[in-house]
């Protein structure tokens, strides 16, 4: 049985950041990231080189399925993204890879990720203080 997902148009006054999802599980996938997209990655202890790659691709936000900083070793990746104005969320909800697909239009607001105004993922938004 085929199930059709109805896509809704985001209201123009919707709070938060609206963008298109691009899954980047492997290094090769980073080349596919386009300006303004929301990158879904799994980069534990996000380092400066990884952050710079994301900045070079001009992503609007990064949803990290791993902890961006564990405290085990100093890393400046999260700071670089934050200073550049890129939203960085460490996803704490399960199965982000199964819930999101390339091309999904999502809205990010306060650590929550919504698709068609239904919450599909949540996490901790990292800023310069965190």
Which overall shape is indicated by the principal axes computed on the Cα atoms?
globular
Q: Would you tell me the structural class of the helices and strands?
A: alpha/beta
End-to-end Cα distance: 46 Å
Counting DSSP E segments of at least 2 residues, the number of strands comes to 7
Radius of gyration: 14 Å
What fraction strand? Answer: 25-35%
Q: Provide the helix percentage.
A: 10-25%
Low-confidence stretches: none
* Main beta-sheet annotation: 7 strands, mixed, barrel
* DSSP helical segment count: 3
Instruction: Give the spatial strand order of the biggest sheet.
Output: 1-2-3-4-7-6-5
Average pLDDT, all residues = 89
**What is the helix/strand order?**
EEHEHEHEEE
Structural summary, described in words:
With 130 residues, the chain is α/β, with parallel strands linked by helices. Helices cover 15% and strands 29% of the residues. The protein has 3 helices and 7 strands. The protein has a 7-stranded mixed barrel. A hairpin with a 2-residue loop joins strand 5 and strand 6 (112-115). Helix 1 packs parallel to helix 2 (77-83). It is globular.
What are its keywords?
alpha/beta; 130 residues; single chain; 7 strands
Blueprint of the fold:
Layout lengths: L16 E7 L14 E4 L6 H9 L4 E4 L12 H7 L3 E5 L4 H4 L5 E5 L2 E4 L2 E9 L4
Parallel strand pairs: 1-2, 2-3, 3-4
Antiparallel strand pairs: 1-5, 4-7, 5-6, 6-7
């Amino acid at each position: 049985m085929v199930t059709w997902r109805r896509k809704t148009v985001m209201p123009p006054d919707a709070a938060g950041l609206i963008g298109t999802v691009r899954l980047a599980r492997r290094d090769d996938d980073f080349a596919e990231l386009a300006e303004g997209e929301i990158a879904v990655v799994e980069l534990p202890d996000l380092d400066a080189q990884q952050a710079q790659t994301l900045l070079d691709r001009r992503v609007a936000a990064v949803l990290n399925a791993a902890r961006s900083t564990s405290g085990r070793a100093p890393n400046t990746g999260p700071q670089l993204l934050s200073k550049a104005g890129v939203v960085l969320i460490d996803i704490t909800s399960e199965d982000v890879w199964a819930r999101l697909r390339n091309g999904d239009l999502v809205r990010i607001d306060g650590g929550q990720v919504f698709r068609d105004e239904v919450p599909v993922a949540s996490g901790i938004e990292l800023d310069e203080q965190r």
